[in-house]
Amino acid sequence: MAELKIGEQSKPRFEFRSFGQCFCEAHKRMARLSVPVPEKVWERESDEIYIISAKNDINNTKIRDGKMDIKTYVQTVDGFEQWNPLMKGEFPISREVLEKEVFPAFMVEMPALTKDTYTYEEFIAMVKACPDLAAVRVHKQRFGYMVNNTICEVGNVLINGAKVVTINSESTEIEDIKKTVADCHLEGVENINYLQAIKRVIGMSDKPLANETICHRK
Questions:
Q1: Which of 33, 104, 162, 213 has its C-alpha lying 20 to 30 A from 88's C-alpha?
Q2: What class has domain 14-202?
């Protein structure tokens, strides 16, 4: 079995992820169970734009550093989701890519495209003009770990300024994820992805986050 390395792509991985207000005890266990990880993943921050569609739950679209990344849902096995890259693109982006890949992934009506290429600002304007789409600002502060040969993280996430906490474990091996979930006392916690979490925070979905408990430190 090939060993996973943080920050490197391998074959498509399965993932457990949850969101809430506090995972303090699980975070403490994850940190203590972790083997040493590269310093570059001790703490990372990023600013991203997620394009959320009311019509679509199977394509996850985000923009970071002027680059668009779309992942598509493949399957769920034992409650863990597997996603594959669908496309990667940069701005300015061509009309052909928007027509054939981007807007079909949103599953919304195609806007009138009259130019050969579109800048980031022009693309965001089209998103905002569509009632079924939302451009959501997401800031991530992520702390990386490695438990049972699964890539793990705990993150403080601002979704349009609303703070939530996420915790995850991902691997090509489902049994390793199951052990990590159990070791971190996360059994029974709902497994939800970024797409669903953002929809819940912005009100596109009426479901609550998985863990709404607020941590009161003594």
A1: 162
A2: mainly beta
